[in-house]
Specification:
The protein is α+β, with helices and mostly antiparallel strands. It has helices spanning 2-5, 27-34, 71-84, 110-113, 123-132, 143-151; strands at 20-24, 44-50, 56-63. The two termini are 25 Å apart.
Length: 153
Amino acid sequence: MNSIMDGNPSVSFVSQGANMLVYYTSQAYFEAQTGLTVPPNTVGFFTYYVDDTLHITSAVCWIGPDTFSQPNFRNHIIIEEMTQCLGLGKDIFTYPDGTPAHSSVFYELAHQLGNDAATNYSPLDRAIINLLYSNNVVIGENEQQTRARLEAL
């Protein structure tokens, strides 16, 4: 992630003072610890918290035990949920040209791919992550404003 975002923000493992907590545990334990509710039939979950200027200040994600027996699928869910904690919260079904987004870490139906689910960012994933953390996207703008800004580049 760090290589894509040019260090803004940076991701690192720390023993205290973390602003993103990752849980590899049962759904019941996660819900008891966080007070959050995971939707039914979910293998991964995230949420992030923002300040009054809409900057992400912290995040929590959960990786469910149903992923543990399939290492590649587990890795897919880890990278997907952690990336979504950085502000890219939507999954996709297809690319803009209509082809299935199998190679994206944001692919909604990755559970159907199991161990064949993407475990690396696709070129489009990288471009979107890079764009989100560039100076070309302004927090709080709507889609129309952002599109206009990007089209002007």
